[in-house]
């Protein structure tokens, strides 16, 4: 790893990135930087800002055929975890921000999410189907410790006996074990824990503000021991960075009780290719070009890939090797395990907030 003093620690992206929908862009000039240096001031304080937003709805229908969910909801937009590869970075442009540092430092907070969710679940036309929290950004990112919106939403799901899925890479989910356990009694909850590497060094630069690997593995074990099904998301697999860890990752999560594992091959859609390239040249200059070329080889020669059915799976020899390793891992460590469908039969009689008597 490069120890260049200019490397921005604690963040994934190393710069602000222009919003492609904006005609004008903000540029920091050298004379301003020189002024800050002389005055002993910081040109960029690198602070996180929480911004309240007020959407009219919170549950989104997922139209993508290769995501694996029908409905999702996101209590927060933007994510302070700072994962450099995150596909959600591009969505921040629709809110008027950039996909680089803005994505990590401008966190949009939907405090009305529990109320909007309750209205959705009570609607006469709504038929219970699993709603996945964190379809876009992590519902247990650091902001959740302050605002507790995810916990309040889980209370709504429990009140109306409605199935919910969670995707996270933060051990903060342990805080809500009481609600998760109650949901689990009626088979209303499934959790996906994302674990990208067993190397803490890799984790720190790839996902700078996420929970440690030790804490994530502990979370898999704790949830599993409490009867909550856990799928380990070994994703994304990045050639030259974590592709050699597939078997060891699968073994580690299986030993801690995960019922299944899944993966995706990294793709750097939209502006993420530029952000990732800048990052890897700063953190891994000795292998940057090799990794970028291997990623491109998985996507028809381009870092970006928008083809449904292929964008998350990849193609070519390198992607084929990843698939073969994952198939071996699943056969070796998960042959006697598997996912179960969540219960959608209870919600209808609880739509009024309590079980109907007549």
From TrEMBL:
Protein name stated in the entry: PA0069 family radical SAM protein
Keywords: Iron, Iron-sulfur, Metal-binding
Every Radical SAM core domain range: 62-302
SMART domains in alphabetical order: Elp3
PANTHER family, A to Z: SLR0285 PROTEIN
Taxonomic path: Bacteria, Pseudomonadati, Bacteroidota, Flavobacteriia, Flavobacteriales
Pfam families assigned: Radical_SAM
């Amino acid at each position: 790893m490069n120890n260049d003093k200019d490397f921005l620690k604690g963040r994934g992206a190393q710069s602000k990135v222009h919003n492609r929908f904006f005609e004008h862009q903000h540029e920091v000039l050298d004379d301003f930087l020189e002024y800050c240096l002389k005055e002993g001031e910081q040109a960029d304080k690198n602070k996180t800002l929480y911004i309240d937003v007020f959407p009219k709805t919170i549950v989104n229908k997922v139209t993508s055929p290769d995501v694996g969910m029908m409905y999702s909801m996101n209590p927060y937009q933007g994510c302070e975890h700072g994962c450099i590869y995150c596909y959600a970075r591009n969505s921040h442009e629709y809110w008027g921000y950039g996909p680089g540092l803005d994505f990590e430092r401008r966190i949009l907070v939907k405090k009305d999410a529990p109320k909007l969710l309750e209205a959705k679940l009570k609607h006469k036309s709504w038929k219970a189907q699993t709603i996945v929290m964190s379809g876009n950004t992590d519902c247990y990112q650091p902001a959740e410790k302050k605002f507790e919106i995810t916990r309040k939403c889980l209370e709504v799901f429990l009140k109306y006996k409605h199935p919910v899925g969670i995707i996270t890479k933060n051990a903060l989910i342990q805080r809500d074990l009481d609600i998760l356990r109650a949901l689990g009694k009626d088979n209303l909850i499934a959790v996906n824990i994302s674990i990208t590497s067993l190397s803490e060094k890799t984790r720190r630069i790839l996902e700078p503000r996420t929970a440690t690997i030790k804490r994530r593995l502990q979370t898999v074990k704790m949830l599993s021991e409490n009867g909550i099904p856990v799928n380990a998301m070994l994703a994304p697999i990045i050639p030259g960075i974590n592709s050699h860890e597939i078997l060891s990752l699968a073994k580690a999560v299986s030993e801690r009780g995960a019922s299944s594992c899944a993966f995706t091959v990294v793709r750097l859609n939209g502006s993420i290719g530029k952000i990732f390239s800048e990052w890897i040249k700063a953190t891994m200059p000795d292998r940057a070009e090799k990794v970028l070329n291997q990623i491109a080889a998985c996507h028809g020669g381009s870092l970006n890939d928008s083809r449904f059915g292929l964008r998350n799976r990849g193609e070519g020899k390198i992607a084929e090797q990843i698939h073969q390793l994952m198939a071996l891992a699943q056969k070796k460590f998960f042959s006697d395990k598997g996912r179960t469908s969540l219960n959608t039969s209870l919600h209808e009689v609880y739509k009024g907030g309590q079980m109907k008597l007549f």
